[in-house]
Structures are given as C-alpha cells and as structure tokens.
Design brief:
The protein is an alpha+beta fold and 262 residues long. It is 62% helix and 12% strand. α2 (17-35) packs antiparallel against α9 (230-257), α5 (79-91) packs across α7 and α7 (123-168) packs antiparallel against α8 (183-203). The longest helix is centred in the middle third of the chain and has 46 residues, at 123-168.
Length: 262
C-alpha cells in the first residue's frame, strides 16, 4: 500500500469545493429543521434605570461611573435578591430551584440600564419569575438607597459636630454650645453619630446617596416566542456537514490511490 500524499489529498478535496458547499448547506438546513421541532421559548424581561445626581458627586470618571453601575448590578443579581425571589415563588406554589433559575436567567447591562430576563416554555412562568425577581430587587435597592441617604445625612451632622469641636477648642471659643464646658457632650455626640454612619453604610450595600434606581420597564406577558441558540445550531450543522464531506472525500481519495488487487 502506498503512502498518501497530504498535499495531493488537499488538492483533491479543494477541487471538489462544490461538494463541500452543498454539504455545509445541507448540514445547516438539517440543523435549522431540528430547531423547528424544539419547544418554543418565551422571554419576559424587566429593566432598571440608574441615574446619578452629579450636583452631589461632581464630575465622575468613567471608572467611577462603572463602579456605581456594577454596585447596582451586584445587588440585582445577588444571592440575597435571588433567594428572596425564589422564596416568593415557592410561596406562590412554583417549585423553582436555584440551579433551574440560573440556567434560564439572563442579566445584562445597557449603558445606564440593567435588564433582567427569564426564558421558559410557558410565557406565564417566564413573567412570574421576572415579576418576583424585579419586585425583590427593587425593594432591596430602594432599602439600600434609603440607608445611603441616611448615612449622608448623618455625615452632615458629624461634619457640623467636628466643626463645633474645633471652634470650641480654639481661643475665644464659638457658639455657646461649642465650648470646652460642653466638650464631653460634643465628643459623645461625635461617637454616636459615627456609629450611626457605620451602621447605615453597612445596610446601604455599597450604594451612595447620589444614586437613583427606578424600575422603568416591568415584566409583561410575552406574546411571541423567542428562539435562542438557533444560529449556533445552524453553524454547528454547517460545520458538521463540512467535516463529513471532507472525511468522505478523503476516504474516496485513499481508495483511488490504493486500489485493491486480486
């Protein structure tokens, strides 16, 4: 048996390029036909819009804005929110596990918007999951922002107390309440206010008071099914057809180069 020359094999295969193209088309059509027999998927979605009050923060760098957006996104897709949503769904009679949720949940960012999506063969289920998700996320986001605003308010009080302390320790003193005689009271107020700030910041979950998050688009019942991964399946079918054609042509070339002799 003679050895097969790889260059000759390559020339033989490429010379039959029409066969390769037809095999790719056939594979793609076959894959597309398979997708038509798959169960339709419905996608429900909701959108959170984030705004920043630049009168409070001043100009922010792109990195700072990105960090602010990521902070909101981290909460929306946090274990706290997902667990609360699953608990609400289970209470409503839907037995959905974390694994099932994460398998069909989609979460992406569009500039200053966070979109949450869920896909299911039942459009009612898709909307129900996103509704529970959006409600829990919105509740926790608003709670976090309220604590962030409280922290900012207490910070203003702390600044005033520190200024009062500074004036009281200077020669000539300041206002009547900002005197050395009231030093212990001022120090106690500073300590208490600092503790309040620490507590509020912990409950703000990393958000700051200049942020505002609104649920701009709530989940609706999806009317039309969506197809996802169809393009990938068709591409895989085309690639499979191409490889099959190359294999068959290689087998044919091998037989032509090494005919059997009786």
């Amino acid at each position: 048996m003679k050895n097969i020359n790889f260059l000759d094999l390559l020339k033989s295969v490429t010379s039959r390029w029409l066969w390769l193209v037809m095999a790719m088309i056939a594979g793609g059509l076959l894959a597309w036909g398979v997708t038509s027999f798959l169960d339709p998927l419905y996608e429900a979605n909701a959108v959170f819009t984030v705004t920043i009050d630049y009168t409070q923060t001043g100009a922010l760098t792109d990195i700072e804005e990105d960090q602010a957006m990521r902070g909101v996104g981290d909460i929306i897709f946090s274990d706290e929110v997902v667990s609360a949503a699953l608990t609400a769904l289970n209470s409503a009679g839907m037995d959905l596990s974390r694994e099932e949720f994460f398998e069909d949940a989609i979460f992406d960012r569009e500039e200053f918007r966070w979109a949450i999506r869920y896909r299911d063969a039942d459009p009612v289920v898709a909307r129900q999951v996103v509704t529970a998700w959006q409600e829990q996320a919105d509740a926790i986001l608003q709670d976090s922002l309220e604590h962030a605003r409280m922290a900012a308010s207490f910070q203003e009080v702390l600044t005033g107390l520190e200024l009062c302390l500074q004036r009281g320790t200077q020669a000539g003193g300041g206002a009547a309440e900002c005197t050395l005689q009231n030093l212990d009271g001022i120090l106690a107020a500073i300590s208490d206010t600092s503790a309040l700030i620490t507590g509020e910041l912990a409950q703000s979950r990393g958000l700051f008071s200049a942020l505002a998050v609104s649920l701009s688009d709530k989940a609706d019942l999806p009317a039309q099914p969506v197809r996802y991964q169809t393009g990938m399946l068709v591409l895989s079918g085309m690639l499979t057809g191409l490889l099959a054609a190359i294999f068959l042509l290689a087998v044919r070339f091998s037989r032509e180069q090494n005919p059997k002799h009786e």
